[in-house]
User: Which sequence fits this backbone?
C-alpha cells in the first residue's frame, strides 16, 4: 500500500556490461522496461559515439522498410497485426536482415521501373490505336461522295483547282482534353485559319504511367497545306505536349497498322498482367512479416542508441552504464541481466552496483489501468517531487465526487455510467482495434474516471432527487395538504383555492409536515414555486462544508510530508498555524451551519439570523447589529477569541519561521568553525577509525571479486550481493559536477520574502478558495436549470397533446430530446463540470501540500518505443 | 434480391442506443402517467374548463393522464420497432463486412 501514497524509492546504479554481453543485457532491460539510462557522455557529439555506425545501419533498414510499406499501402494490401512480440535479433543477424531488405527493395524498384516502362509503351500503343480508329472516321467522311458532291458544287466557279486536287498534309495525335479549347484557338491564330482541325474524345480514361492518375484525352487530326504550315503546327503541338503519331495515308496501310497495333497491345497486356501478379506476390509475402521486421529493427536501433549513452572503459572490456531504477525492482533487473548474459553465451556476468548520490531521483508512480487516469490528472498539473505525498489516491474518490456534485442527475448519471461500462467491458476488444480517432482515444483512456463520475452522479442525483429534472417519489412525501383545510390549521376552503393562484403550506400546522424524506430532497419541492430559494440555501451551505473539509484534508496531508522529510520546524511553524487559522475561521463557519440546521425549527425559524452577516461581523468585531440576533449565548466571547487565535497564527507563519531558520544557520556556522579548529589540533594524530573502515571494504572486494582494469568485476553468477555492496570508487568521476549543490548559502532576505509570500498567499487563499468552492453550487444550479428548460421546451411539447395521434409527435420529439440531452447536458455540461472539478483539485486542494516540481521517470522500454510514445 | 440495407453501421448503432433509451424511458413515463403521478401534472394538457366542468372531480384530469400514458406506451412500441429494424441493419452490415473481406 505504501507505494500508492508516495512515489517509488529510486536508486542510482551502475551497470558493468561485458562488451560481448552488453547488447543482450540491454535488450532484456528493454523488455523489462524498468530502468532509465543516463547519458554518460553528454559532451560527445552524436557522430562521435561508438555505435553510430550500427544506428546508421538500422536507420537505413528502417528507410527500406518504410519504402516497402508505402508500396504495400499503395497496392492496398492489408497488413496483419498478430500482436506478436518478436525477440531482438542478435547483432550477427543484422547482416542477414540487411541483405533481405536490400534484396526486397531492389526487386521492388526493378519491378517498378519495368512496370513503368511497360505502361508507357502500352499507353502509346493505346493512343495510336485510338488515333487509327478515329482518323479512319475522318477519312471516311472526307471520301463520302455526298459530301464531295456538296463541296464540288460549292467550288463550281473555280475551274482551276478542280483538275489537280490539293495535296493536303495532315498530322494526327493525342492531347489531354482540357487543353483542346486553347489548342484550337492557338492553331487558328497562328495559322490564320488555314488549318483544319478535327477532334474526337476518347471515352475511357487512360492511365498516366508516371503518376498513376486517370486522364481523359482526345484524338485530333490537323489538315494543312504546305511545309511551312506543317512546321508551325508541329511546333504548336509540341508546345501543348500533344503526342504525335505517324499515320499512314492510305486506308489499306492504316488497316494493316491497326491490326499490328492490336496484336502488340494484346501481348503487352499479358506481360503487364504478369508483372502486376509478380509484384502483388512479392508485396503479399513482404506484408506478412512487415510488422515483425519493423519491430526488430526499431528494437535494435533503440538498443544501439542506449549503448551509445554508456561509458566505455579504458580497457575496452566492458561498458559502464548509469541507470535510475526502482529499489523494489532490483531483483528483476538482476535477473534480466543474468538472462542477457546467458543468452549471449558469455561466462563473465554483468554487475549491478548501487551508488549513493545527492542527486534528486526521478519520480515514478506505479499505476495500473484503473489508477493511471487519475495519476495523469495529477501529473498534468506537475510531476510530484521525489517521495512526496501523491494526491492521486485521494483524487480517485474526491474528483468524481466533486464532479458529481455539479452534475447531480440520476438520468444523466445513468447514461454516463452505461457508456463507461460499455467501454470497460469491451476493453480488450476496443484495445485491439487501435482506433486512430483522437477524441475516442481520450475518452477511452479516461473510461474508469467516467465510470466513477457516472456512479457518483447517480448518487448525487438520488440526493438531489433529480432524474431528467423530475423527482422520484419513492418513499412518499413528508408534506400533506389536507391538514390545511382543518379549522385549527390553515382554515383553507374551496373558495381559497379558487381565489389564489399560489398558496403556501405552513409547516407549523400539525400534520402538514410529517418529518423529512428518508433519502435526499423531498419530491414535493419539484412542483413548488419556491424550490430555488430552498435548494440554493441548501447547496450553498453544502458547498462551503465540502470545500472547507476538502481544504482541511489537503492541509493535513502536508503534515505527512513534513513528517516524512523530517522537518519539525515546518510542522510547528507551518502546519499547525495553518490548520488553526483555517479551522478557527472557516471550520467555525461550518460548525455554525450545522448548528443553524439543528437549532431552529418551524416555530423559531422566523428569527433565524443570516450566517453570512454573522461571519462578516465576527471579523469586524461588530456585535451591535440589532437586526441580526446572536445564535447562542456567549457567542461574542468565543468569536473574539477565535479571531484573535487566527490573527496570532499569521505572525507565526510570517516571521517566526524565518527567525528560527536564521538562528539555526548561525548556530551551524559556529559549530563548523569550532570543528575546523578541533581538526587543526588533531591533525598530528593519524585518523584511526577511517583506516579500519577502508580495510574492511577492501577485504570484501578481494573476497569475491578481482580488480579488472580499475573496475571491480564479479567472477561468478552468485556474486550479485557483492555487486550491490556500496559506493564504488569509479562512480566518483561522473558525480564531481553534482555534489556542489549540497549546502546552499543562507540568504536571510530571500527566505523572508519567500515566507512572506507563502503566508499572504495562504491567508488570502483561504478566503478566496472557500469562495471558489461556491462553484459547486453554481454549476449544479446551472445543470438543474438547463435540464429543466430542456424538459419544458422539448419533452413537454411531445407529452402535452391530448389528441390520439400524439404518439407520433412524441416519438419524434423524444429523439430530439435524446440528442439534445447528450449534446448539451452530457457533453457540454459534463465537460464544464469536469474542468471545474479539475480546477478545484489543482488549485484549491493541491496547493495546500503538493509542490509538483519533480521530473518523471522515463524507463527504457521497448513497449513505449514501439507505440511511438517515446521519441529519441 | 434488392438489398434491405439502408443505413451504415454507425447509424444503426445510434438507432439501437436511442431505441433502448426510448423504450425504457417512455415505458416508465407511461407507467407514471397511468399511475397519475403528481410531479408530471405540468405535462398533462388540461385546461381551466377541465377542472371547472368536471362532474366527478378528478375524472376528467385522470382521463387526460391516461391519454398521455397511452401515447407514451405507443411511442415506446414505435421505438421497439425502430430498435428491431436497427438490429436487422446491424446484422446486415456485419454480413456484408464478411462478404467483402
Assistant:
Amino acid at each position: 500500500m505504501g507505494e500508492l501514497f508516495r512515489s517509488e524509492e529510486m536508486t542510482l546504479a551502475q551497470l558493468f556490461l561485458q562488451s560481448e554481453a552488453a547488447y543482450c543485457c540491454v535488450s532484456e532491460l528493454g523488455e523489462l522496461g524498468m530502468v532509465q539510462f543516463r547519458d554518460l557522455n553528454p559532451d560527445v557529439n552524436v557522430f562521435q559515439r561508438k555505435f553510430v555506425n550500427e544506428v546508421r545501419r538500422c536507420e537505413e533498414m528502417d528507410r527500406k522498410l518504410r519504402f516497402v510499406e508505402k508500396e504495400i499501402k499503395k497496392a492496398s494490401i492489408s497488413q496483419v497485426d498478430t500482436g506478436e512480440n518478436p525477440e531482438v535479433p542478435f547483432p550477427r543477424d543484422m547482416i542477414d536482415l540487411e541483405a533481405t531488405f536490400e534484396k526486397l527493395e531492389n526487386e521492388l524498384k526493378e519491378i517498378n521501373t519495368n512496370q513503368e516502362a511497360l505502361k508507357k509503351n502500352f499507353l502509346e500503343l493505346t493512343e495510336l490505336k485510338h488515333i487509327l480508329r478515329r482518323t479512319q472516321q475522318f477519312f471516311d467522311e472526307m471520301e463520302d461522295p455526298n459530301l464531295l458532291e456538296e463541296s464540288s458544287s460549292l467550288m463550281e466557279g473555280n475551274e482551276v483547282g478542280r483538275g489537280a486536287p490539293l495535296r493536303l498534309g495532315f498530322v494526327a495525335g493525342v492531347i489531354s482534353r482540357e487543353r483542346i479549347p486553347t489548342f484550337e484557338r492557338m492553331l487558328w491564330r497562328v495559322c490564320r485559319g488555314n488549318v483544319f482541325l478535327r477532334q474526337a474524345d476518347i471515352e475511357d480514361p487512360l492511365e498516366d504511367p508516371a503518376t498513376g492518375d486517370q486522364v481523359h484525352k482526345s484524338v485530333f487530326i490537323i489538315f494543312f497545306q504546305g511545309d511551312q504550315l506543317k512546321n508551325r503546327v508541329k511546333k504548336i503541338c509540341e508546345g501543348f505536349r500533344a503526342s504525335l503519331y505517324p499515320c499512314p495515308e492510305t486506308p489499306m496501310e492504316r488497316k494493316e497498322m491497326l491490326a499490328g497495333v492490336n496484336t502488340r497491345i494484346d501481348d503487352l497486356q499479358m506481360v503487364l498482367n504478369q508483372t502486376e501478379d509478380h509484384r502483388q506476390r512479392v508485396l503479399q509475402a513482404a506484408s506478412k512479416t512487415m510488422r515483425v521486421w519493423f519491430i526488430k529493427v526499431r528494437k535494435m536501433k533503440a538498443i544501439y542508441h542506449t549503448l551509445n549513452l554508456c561509458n566505455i572503459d579504458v580497457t575496452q572490456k566492458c561498458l559502464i552504464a548509469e541507470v535510475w531504477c526502482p529499489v523494489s525492482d532490483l531483483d528483476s533487473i538482476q535477473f534480466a541481466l543474468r538472462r542477457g548474459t546467458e543468452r549471449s553465451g558469455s561466462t563473465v556476468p554483468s554487475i549491478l552496483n548501487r551508488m549513493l548520490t545527492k542527486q534528486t531521483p526521478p519520480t515514478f508512480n506505479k499505476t495500473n489501468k484503473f489508477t493511471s487516469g487519475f495519476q495523469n490528472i495529477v501529473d498534468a498539473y506537475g510531476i510530484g517531487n521525489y517521495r512526496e505525498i501523491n494526491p492521486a489516491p485521494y483524487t480517485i474518490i474526491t474528483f468524481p465526487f466533486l464532479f458529481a456534485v455539479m452534475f447531480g442527475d440520476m438520468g444523466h448519471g445513468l447514461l454516463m455510467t452505461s457508456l463507461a461500462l460499455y467501454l470497460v467491458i469491451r476493453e480488450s476488444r476496443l484495445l485491439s482495434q487501435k482506433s486512430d480517432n483522437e477524441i475516442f482515444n481520450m475518452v477511452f483512456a479516461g473510461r474508469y474516471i467516467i465510470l466513477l463520475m457516472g456512479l457518483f452522479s447517480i448518487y448525487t442525483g438520488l440526493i438531489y432527487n433529480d432524474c431528467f429534472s423530475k423527482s422520484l417519489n419513492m418513499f412518499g412525501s413528508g408534506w400533506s395538504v389536507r391538514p390545511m383545510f382543518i379549522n385549527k390549521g390553515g382554515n383553507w376552503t374551496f373558495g381559497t383555492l379558487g381565489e389564489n393562484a399560489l398558496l403556501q403550506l405552513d409547516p407549523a400546522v400539525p400534520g402538514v409536515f410529517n418529518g423529512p424524506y428518508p433519502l435526499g430532497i423531498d419530491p414535493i419541492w419539484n412542483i413548488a414555486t419556491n424550490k430555488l430559494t430552498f435548494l440554493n440555501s441548501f447547496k450553498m451551505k453544502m458547498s462551503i462544508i465540502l470545500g472547507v473539509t476538502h481544504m482541511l484534508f489537503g492541509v493535513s496531508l502536508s503534515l505527512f510530508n513534513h513528517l516524512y522529510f523530517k522537518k519539525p520546524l515546518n510542522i510547528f511553524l507551518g502546519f499547525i498555524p495553518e490548520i488553526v487559522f483555517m479551522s478557527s475561521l472557516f471550520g467555525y463557519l461550518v460548525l455554525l451551519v450545522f448548528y443553524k440546521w439543528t437549532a431552529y425549527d418551524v416555530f423559531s425559524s422566523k428569527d433565524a439570523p443570516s450566517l453570512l452577516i454573522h461571519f462578516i461581523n465576527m471579523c469586524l468585531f461588530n456585535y451591535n447589529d440589532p437586526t441580526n440576533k446572536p445564535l447562542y449565548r456567549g457567542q461574542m466571547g468565543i468569536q473574539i477569541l477565535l479571531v484573535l487565535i487566527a490573527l496570532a497564527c499569521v505572525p507565526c507563519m510570517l516571521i517566526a519561521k524565518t527567525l528560527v531558520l536564521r538562528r539555526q544557520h548561525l548556530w551551524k556556522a559556529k559549530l563548523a568553525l569550532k570543528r575546523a579548529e578541533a581538526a587543526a589540533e588533531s591533525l598530528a594524530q593519524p585518523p584511526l577509525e577511517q583506516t579500519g573502515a577502508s580495510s574492511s571494504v577492501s577485504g570484501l572486494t578481494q573476497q569475491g571479486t578481482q580488480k579488472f582494469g580499475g573496475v571491480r568485476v564479479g567472477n561468478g553468477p552468485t556474486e550479485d550481493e557483492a555487486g550491490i555492496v556500496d559506493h564504488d570508487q569509479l562512480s566518483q568521476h561522473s558525480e564531481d559536477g553534482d555534489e556542489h549543490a549540497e549546502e546552499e548559502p543562507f540568504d536571510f532576505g530571500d527566505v523572508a520574502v519567500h515566507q512572506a509570500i507563502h503566508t499572504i498567499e495562504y491567508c488570502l487563499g483561504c478566503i478566496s478558495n472557500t469562495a471558489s468552492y461556491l462553484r459547486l453550487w453554481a454549476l449544479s444550479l446551472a445543470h438543474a436549470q438547463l435540464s429543466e428548460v430542456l424538459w419544458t421546451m422539448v419533452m413537454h411539447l411531445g407529452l402535452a397533446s391530448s389528441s390520439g395521434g400524439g404518439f407520433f409527435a412524441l416519438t419524434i420529439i423524444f429523439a430530439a430530446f435524446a440528442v439534445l440531452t447528450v449534446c448539451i447536458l452530457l457533453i457540454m455540461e459534463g465537460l464544464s463540470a469536469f474542468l471545474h472539478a479539475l480546477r478545484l483539485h489543482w488549485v484549491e486542494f493541491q496547493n495546500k501540500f503538493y509542490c509538483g516540481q519533480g521530473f518523471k521517470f522515463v524507463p527504457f522500454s521497448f513497449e513505449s518505443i514501439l507505440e511511438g510514445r517515446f521519441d529519441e | 434480391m434488392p438489398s434491405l440495407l439502408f443505413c451504415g453501421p454507425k447509424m444503426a448503432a445510434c438507432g439501437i442506443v436511442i431505441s433502448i433509451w426510448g423504450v425504457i424511458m417512455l415505458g416508465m413515463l407511461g407507467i407514471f402517467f397511468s399511475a397519475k403521478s403528481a410531479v408530471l401534472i405540468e405535462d398533462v394538457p388540461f385546461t381551466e374548463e377541465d377542472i371547472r366542468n368536471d362532474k366527478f372531480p378528478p375524472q376528467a384530469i385522470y382521463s387526460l393522464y391516461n391519454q398521455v400514458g397511452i401515447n407514451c406506451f405507443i411511442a415506446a412500441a414505435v421505438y421497439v420497432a425502430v430498435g428491431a429494424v436497427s438490429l436487422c441493419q446491424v446484422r446486415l452490415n456485419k454480413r456484408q463486412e464478411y462478404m467483402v473481406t
Q: What stands out?
A: The mean pLDDT of chain B is 86. Helices of chain B lie at 9-34, 48-52, 59-100. DSSP finds three helices and no strands in chain B.
